[in-house]
Amino acid sequence: MAMITSRCADRRRSAFHRPMPHGVENLRHPSFLDRHAQPVSTPRDSTLDRRRFLALLGLAAAAPRTADALELTDASRLITDNRADGVRLLNQQGDFIGARGAYYGPPVPFAQLPKHLVEALVASEDRRFYEHWGLDPRAMARAVWSTITGRTQGGSTLTQQTIKEIYLKEHSPIIRKLLEEPVLAPILELNLSKEDILFVYLNRVFFGGSAYGIEAAARVYFNKYARNLGLLESAMMVGLLPAPNRFNPHRNFEVSRDRGFRVIEQMVDAGYLTRRVADRAKAQGVTVAASRSAWGGVYPRSTQIGWFARWAENEASANSTVTGRKGTRTITTTLDLRIQAAAERHLEQGLRQNARARQIEEGAVVVMRYDGAVVALVGGRDYRLKEFDHATQARRQPGSIAKLFVYLAALQEGSTPETKVSDAALTLGGRPVRNFDNRYLGDITLAEALEKSSNTAAVRLAVQNISEVRTAIERLNVARAVAGEAGDLALGTYEARLVDLTAAFASVANRGRMVVPYAVLRAQDSEGTETLTRTPPARSDIRQVMPPQHAELMRQMLAGVVQRGTGRAADPGAWAAGKTGTTTANRDAWFIGFTEQYVAGVWLGNSDSRPMLGVSGGGLPAQIWRAVMTDAGNAP
């Protein structure tokens, strides 16, 4: 049975000096007297009995239908009730960084809505709005007939549209227009003023581009607050309503502007504008903001945040109950906007300058703190063109990055940075193992072999410790059940994700303690109740995945790579450690490492694994890493 809560304000009742009929009195919400009354308009005596009659008749008709509880007594509650599912994302300082799914802006009080916006809405959508009692019989007949005959024609009043937007969008159009809207529209008019209904409608209706409500739409299309919309901008907003995505100014500005012109003419016909004012409004220049909508979301700071936003949403959803994922959720993340901007800027600059000549299609960057909190993530060249995330989804061969696990296994088995290993030419399984520079130095120390990124030395170490190498890869959550022989493990021919490899280096930076990358600090449901809160574990509770002394030795050897070895191009001018990686035919190029504050990984390559031209981990990836980490070190 449908549940409907309703009320009539005491001051409305006293205005007519007569009691409410018993049937309507029972509609009053039991908690109404505890609420702050909404502003109401004074109805006409001649329509009151008709409204009551229709409300009672409608309730009797609607009673057999199954429906969610309907709240028709509180304008503010109506704005938030039964919203489409969506996620608001905040950075660690609480700044809004994006929305996925339905994007709702903060409600704009009626008094702050531009007068010309309200007048444009009434003139275009419901000319008799201030005269009717929620229904316009002639317009309803046209709308029902158009639905029956399969044509598209409006006819619902703004009151009916408000009811539909909140509660009836998924219902059968015939049932909705013949039964439900005629039932509920008069009840809504009994309970709310005309201004309240406009307040609810403008803060709930869909404007396209994932934007619901005028505040979200004003920010998406014009990058301004709704209260600052000009006349032509307001007319364009109203012009969107019949077909929000088709008339989207980001897709077709001329069509959207012409729709705005049409609305202005309707305002003239309705007597809201003079011809002179209308012509002046049409001559106004309009600047549409650059689109910040991409792949299921709106990202006002940068569409490149979309990869991080989607990853954070997935993390929050995986750790929340189903009920905690309904309505508009709020997720506070670990994102640092300054470091994110640096990662985006330096990756884009590196690709812009080198992509064509060196045949590079894609790149990715991850920056995290020592505890795994991801402060920046860029999953590709352009999120608007490709949603696939090369930082958290792509599995690529790590190349010489995999030597981290080979040397950790050697330390585990008792070697030290000064232990000697042969860098001489090597044949394994009938195939020669070659060094990148085709130089072979004979016996050298482990530290020198890592700095040189010696393939022959790494393969020899892996042959001696193959079981321990597999264990290190699995213990650090880089891959499970790694296949291949010693040469495959040493030269990184298996597949791994950038975010996992970066976390493995973070475990080394973190003195051997386990690091699991994360993006969510807390999540709240649509009612503001926290459904997920991250509590940092005590250091003693964090699993030790390698002895602290081995992690320290590894830190020293990786620092040598940056100071004297293949990673010199990554040197940020302060202490740093890291490792280069390049796969066969330059299909993948990596640099992953850490400073005293942050751990970061950079990958360059092509989605289809086409070879790049002369791109190695010690070149462009190391240069991008250095630029990002230099800026990160300067961030507060």
Automatic annotation (TrEMBL):
Keywords (A to Z) from UniProt: Carboxypeptidase, Glycosyltransferase, Hydrolase, Multifunctional enzyme, Protease, Transferase
Enzyme Commission code(s) on record: 2.4.99.28
Domain of life, per lineage: Bacteria
Sample GO molecular function, one term: glycosyltransferase activity
Pathway: Cell wall biogenesis; peptidoglycan biosynthesis
Domain Penicillin-binding protein transpeptidase, chain residue ranges per copy: 364-604
SUPFAM superfamilies: beta-lactamase/transpeptidase-like, Lysozyme-like
Residue ranges of domain Glycosyl transferase family in the record: 106-267
Catalytic activity from the UniProt record: [GlcNAc-(1->4)-Mur2Ac(oyl-L-Ala-gamma-D-Glu-L-Lys-D-Ala-D-Ala)](n)-di-trans,octa-cis-undecaprenyl diphosphate + beta-D-GlcNAc-(1->4)-Mur2Ac(oyl-L-Ala-gamma-D-Glu-L-Lys-D-Ala-D-Ala)-di-trans,octa-cis-undecaprenyl diphosphate = [GlcNAc-(1->4)-Mur2Ac(oyl-L-Ala-gamma-D-Glu-L-Lys-D-Ala-D-Ala)](n+1)-di-trans,octa-cis-undecaprenyl diphosphate + di-trans,octa-cis-undecaprenyl diphosphate + H(+)
Family under the similarity heading: In the C-terminal section; belongs to the transpeptidase family.
Name assigned to this protein: peptidoglycan glycosyltransferase
Lineage, opening ranks: Bacteria, Pseudomonadati, Pseudomonadota, Alphaproteobacteria, Acetobacterales
